[in-house]
Every structure is written in C-alpha cells, then in structure tokens.
Amino acid sequence: MPEISAADVKALRDRTGAGMMDCKRALTESGGDVEKAIEILRKKAGKRIEDRGERVASEGTVQTYVHHNGKIGVLVEVDCETDFVARNADFVSFAKDVAAHIAAAGPRWLTPDDVPALERDRELAIFEQEAADKPAEIRDKIAAGKLAKWFSEVVLLEQVHVNADKHEGKTIRELQHELAAKTGENVFIRRFERFIVGD
Question: Is the pTM of this model over 0.85?
Fold first, then answer.
C-alpha cells in the first residue's frame, strides 16, 4: 500500500476542489492512483467534482487595498478560467478580501514552495536545535510541526484570514478552494505585492 503524502492530497484537491479528507480517503481507496481517486470522488459527490487539472486559469482580476493611513498598499492578482467568473461578485470580493488580509498580515511568500531553501533550512535548523532535548523518535515531528507553524505566519496560503470571525478561522488556501468549488473553475492567487511607505 503506497504512503499517501500531504502533497498528493493537496495536488488532488487542487485538481478537484474536493475536501482534504475526501481526497485522502479517495487516494487511499485507489491505492494512490490519482485518476481512480478522481473517479471515486465523482461517484461520491456527483457533478460537484470535476477534473480541473487540464484547464487553464488565464482570466482574473487585479485588486488593490490601501490602508486608511495611506502608508500600506497591496496589489493582488487572482486568476480564474473565464471572464464570466472574473466579473462575478464573489470572485472580486474574494480578491479584495485577500488584498486587505495581505495588508494586515504581511505574508512574505505565496506558497511554501516559494520560500527560499536557505531561509527554510535556517528555520528548520533552529527548530531542530530547540527539539534537541526531546526523545529522538519525536524530534523530527516537533521540528516539522514548528516549521508548519512558521509557514502559517509567513506564507499567504497557509495563513488564517485576519478576519477570523467572518471566515470561521479558515486559511486563505481553504477560502480559495471554497471559491473554486463554488465557481467550478480553477482559482489561483497568482502573485501579490505589499508596499509600505519608507520601506
């Protein structure tokens, strides 16, 4: 039985918009076969699940946020597949919401993969050092957990939206997936830039 990694689950979720646990169950049931897992998800969820893997997100919107003091500004590009969705109120609202979040939370990178290896390895070395006095069999897990927490502070998609009440404590990635499932299209935050006066 192949081991199902978090990356495998995320890749299937990105392709289908299905929930993380549903994706993990489908991959386990299919023995790690992605195409079979998509079929399993489609049978269970009907028309709400489809393979979005081959479809290109070449439409979208650029939204801005400028803080009331005029000292912090954000530009964010969010992409989808069709002009119809790009003009959809929920889609535009999501992009504006993400821009406001970026202004408040100050993420440094979009995804964990965007974090330079040098920075990631430096943080991991610190976390491994902090766990050095723990039993050997749990040191790696402790360090990995601390690295995941660090990602949740500095990586946009891993951050919980600053308006936790409105968004029920969901991460930006979860909100992006919800919008993708609602619109039936690939939805991606392509890039962002945060400006601070004098920085």
Answer: no
Note down the domain range covering 127. 116-154
Same domain? 64 vs 91: yes
Whole-angstrom Cα distance, residue 100 to residue 73? 9
Model confidence pLDDT, tens digit, residues 29-84: 988 888 888 888 877 765 455 555 555 667 899 999 999 999 999 999 999 988 89
Is 128 found in the same domain as 34? no
Residues 6+ apart with CB under 8 A from 172: 98, 101, 156, 157, 158, 159, 161, 189
Lowest mean pLDDT among 43-52, 67-76, 94-103, 152-161: 43-52
> What letters, b where the CB count within 10 A reaches 16 and e where it falls short, cover 9-22?
beebbbbbbbbeeb
Angstrom distances, CA of residue 105 to CA of 102, 146, 158, 160: 5, 19, 11, 9
What residues contact residue 61 under an 8 Å CB cut-off, 6+ apart?
77, 78, 86, 91, 92, 95
CATH for 177: 3.30.479.20
